[in-house]
Design a protein that fits this description.
This protein has three helices and two strands. The radius of gyration is 11 Å and the shape is globular. Strands 1-2 form a two-stranded parallel ribbon. The two termini are 21 Å apart. Helix 1 links the parallel strand 1 and strand 2. By secondary structure, the protein is an alpha+beta fold. Helices cover 36% and strands 14% of the residues. The model has no long low-confidence stretch (mean pLDDT 78).
Amino acid sequence: MGALLAARADDGAQRVLDRLKQADCQGVIPLKTNRTEQRPYDREMYKWRHLIVENS
């Protein structure tokens, strides 16, 4: 299983997450803090995002 790590600004539209799920890929995209309903995401995996950007 793969994963897509994206910034909070991308906000992770449900249609994107549904496509990722179909492709057996985990979406690690937190919602903006002003959203009334938050969804869970892997916080530890989200921390890896800066490692990918800095080392590419």
